[in-house]
């Protein structure tokens, strides 16, 4: 009988061992999850910057083909975009402007996502975006 009682105790984990393992997992989760969130946000912002650059390129192509400036993204959609309306990951809409012969795309985060993203983003034609440039708290 004593042998059977001993084998039951040896077969499982003690409560302290389980608590230690759970504490280690909690510490790992607390450090990994915020880093993952920043990586996701950085990817979304990079996607928005890429879309803004594509809008500028499409506007320039249409201007070269027609000889007229364009600042209407919907007009670009009909001929130069495969998607109906480009929508920023941060919400809101893209706005295309042209000042002094240079195209610029501006977009502002919507209220529900304003805490996750910086307020306003701008991509200007001809300006390269250096690695490490901060958009809000996210380095590209």
Give a quick precis of the structure.
The chain has helices spanning 2-11, 15-66, 73-79; strands spanning 94-99, 102-108, 120-124, 134-135, 138-139. The protein has 140 residues and is an alpha+beta fold. The chain is rod-shaped.
Describe this structure in words.
With 140 residues, this protein is of the alpha+beta class. It is 49% helix and 16% strand. It has 3 helices and 5 strands; from the N terminus they run αααβββββ. Strand 4 and strand 5 form a beta hairpin. It is rod-shaped and about 95 Å long. The model is unreliable at 136-140 (pLDDT under 50).
**Tally of DSSP helical segments:** 3
Look at the helices and sheets and give the structural class.
Answer: alpha+beta
CA distance, first residue to last residue: 67 Å
Radius of gyration: 26 Å
What is the string of helix and strand elements? HHHEEEEE
Poorly predicted sequence stretches spanning 5 or more consecutive residues: 136-140
- Sheet with the most strands, sense and barrel status: 3 strands, antiparallel
Number of strands: 5
Strand order of the largest sheet: 1-2-3
Morphology call = rod-shaped
The chain-level mean pLDDT equals: 76
Helix content: 40-55%
What fraction strand?
Answer: 15-25%
Topology:
Blueprint: H1 2-11, H2 15-66, H3 73-79, E1 94-99, E2 102-108, E3 120-124, E4 134-135, E5 138-139
Antiparallel strand pairs: 1-2, 2-3, 4-5
């Amino acid at each position: 009988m004593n042998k059977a009682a001993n084998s039951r105790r040896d077969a499982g984990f003690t409560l302290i061992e389980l608590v230690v393992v759970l504490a280690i997992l909690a510490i790992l989760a607390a450090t990994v999850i915020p880093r993952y969130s920043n990586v996701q946000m950085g990817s979304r912002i990079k996607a928005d910057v890429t879309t803004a650059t594509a809008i500028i390129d499409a506007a320039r192509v249409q201007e070269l083909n027609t000889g007229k400036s364009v600042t209407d993204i919907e007009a670009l959609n009909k001929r130069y975009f495969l998607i109906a309306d480009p929508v920023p990951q941060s919400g809101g809409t893209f706005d295309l402007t042209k000042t002094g012969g240079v195209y610029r795309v501006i977009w502002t985060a919507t209220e529900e996502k304003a805490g996750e993203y910086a307020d306003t983003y701008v991509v200007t034609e001809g300006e390269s975006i250096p690695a490490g440039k901060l958009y809000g708290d996210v380095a590209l």
